[in-house]
Amino acid sequence: MSGHNKWSSIKHKKGKADEAKGKIFSRIVREIMMSAKLGGGDPSGNSRLRLAIQKAKESNMPADNIKRAIEKGTSSADAANLEEIVFEIYASYGVALLVESVTDNRNRTISNVKSYINKYNATLAAKGAVSYLFDKKGIILFEPGTSEDAVMEIAAEYNVDDVVTTEDGCVEVTMDPTEFETVKNAFIEKKMTFEEASITMIPKTAVTLDVDQAEKIMRFIDKIEEDDDVQEVYGNHEIPEDVLAKMEA
Fold first, then answer.
1. Do residues 119 and 215 both lie within one domain?
2. pTM here?
């Protein structure tokens, strides 16, 4: 979702994550394995693996679990069938979705995602038909009430795209993914506490949804996210604060 309701979206996702910690761990393990398979098991030379390990630590994953996942990723026996699949989907109301998955069974994952698409009257798009609607960016998000000037003072020393205060009061810093770790570490060193820091896909333009539309789209996304092979779902939809409030009431 766009920056206008990013804070509410994160709170919603955190609530779901707390209810399904085991599933979160499973997804992180797959990401660590995939990262290690593609770039090797040494995080100092594998930025994707470094980010996956950071995410694991932020989720309080035990160090032994992280070590085993790296070992599995660098073992041909464990990682041979592991692959990434990205689905590009046109949903209702002009909403476009990117679904990233890591799977050890390609046929299972494709079959599952296609069943969700059919159930919710969506369409599987050709490669590139949806991805061009998004930019890959690093985002660091500070909770409402954070001083934009304080954030800007640090961010100005680095190559960031923008620092803005969103409609719900968050301070959002965006940057090229290559700058993400440097900027994130700068805020950590300055003891500036942030609520979310990730590399994500940001829509170039957003489709604003009303209550009925948002509920239907979120049911579709929730169904996709329930799949064990799915890592992330990105959409070009925006849910206004008043609509979110009605949905949560």
1. yes
2. 0.86
Whether the per-residue pLDDT at 20 is higher than 90: the answer is no
Q: Tokens in use for 176?
A: 């090229």
Give the span between the Cα atoms of 42 and 248, in whole angstroms. Answer: 43
Is the separation of the CB atoms in 249 and 216 below 8 Å? no
Say if residue 153 is in the same domain as residue 42: no
- Rounded Cα gap, residues 222 and 135, in angstroms: 23
Residues 102, 30 contacting (CB under 8 angstroms): yes
Residues 58 and 91 in one domain: no
Start-to-end CA span in the chain (Å): 20
Q: Could you tell me where the DSSP H helices lie in 59-147?
A: 63-73, 76-79, 106-119
Q: What is the CATH number of the domain that holds 162?
A: 3.30.70.980
Residue 200 half-sphere exposure toward CB, CA atoms < 13 A = 22
Contacts 24+ apart (CB under 8 A), 21-24: 21/59, 23/228, 24/59
Domain boundaries, position 157: 133-203
Helix (H, G, I), strand (E, B) or coil at 44: helix
Give the pairing of strands 237-238 and 207-208: parallel
Beta bridge partners of 84: 102
68-121 pLDDT, tens digit per residue, is 999 999 987 878 889 999 999 999 999 999 999 999 999 999 999 999 999 999
* Rounded Cα–Cα distance for residues 233 and 238 (Å): 14
